[in-house]
Amino acid sequence: MFNGSRKYSPLPSSPSSSRASSSSSSLPAAPRRSPRALQRHSSLLSQYSSLLESYTEGEIRQLISALVERYSQAMNSGSHELPLFPRAGSRRKRARARHKPCALKELEVSVSELGLGYESDETVLFRYCSGTCEAAIRSYDLSLKSMRSRRKIKKEKVRARPCCRPLAYDDDVSFLDAYNRYYTVNELSAKECGCV
């Protein structure tokens, strides 16, 4: 990968020290490296080979020492993976969060917060369905999506993927409003969820 006939010297730490060292020592100046542009049509291996060949020996030593230091920090902190790409884990977490399966969730709210027009300070346990239905996509959904993209179905409002919805509802919910009137609401809270 490296040309053995070329000799490289480590990079100086600052521009002022390079001027001083070049005038005071008889070491040959480091060759200028070629730009690190990757060719579009060459293979991935040859792209990385040419990229690494453009580094000087001092730059490669700095790179290796930085990787070794990072590795030793990871081992001392109890982690067994080299943290080269710290964002990859958070990306995976976000991806998992977006694709949580359809499930029943619950929330304690006041009757007024339900948005049904009742004024009451009583609280109820509101159960709802949340999540995605990627695993429940069937041939129907794929065909419907294709027909919509080809504009075969234009005016109708159709949904080309299954939706997380209640399959069954809890018992009716009864409460007193702010004026001591008694109400019963049916099909308010989900009992079972599924992809429909």
List the helices and strands and how they pair.
Elements: H1 15-24, H2 44-53, H3 57-76, H4 87-98, E1 103-110, E2 123-130, H5 139-149, E3 164-169, E4 173-176, E5 182-185, E6 190-195
Antiparallel strand pairs: 1-2, 3-6, 4-5
Provide an overview of this structure:
Keywords: Disulfide bond, Growth factor, Secreted, Signal. Belongs to the TGF-beta family. GDNF subfamily. Residues 1-39 are annotated as: Disordered. It comes from Sula dactylatra (Masked booby). The chain is an alpha+beta fold. It has a domain at 103-135 and 161-195: Ribbon (Cystine Knot Cytokines, subunit B). It is 32% helix and 18% strand. The chain has helices at residues 15-24, 44-53, 57-76, 87-98, 139-149, and strands at residues 103-110, 123-130, 164-169, 173-176, 182-185, 190-195. Strand 4 (173-176) and strand 5 form a beta hairpin. The longest helix has 20 residues, at 57-76. The chain is elongated, with a radius of gyration of 33 Å.
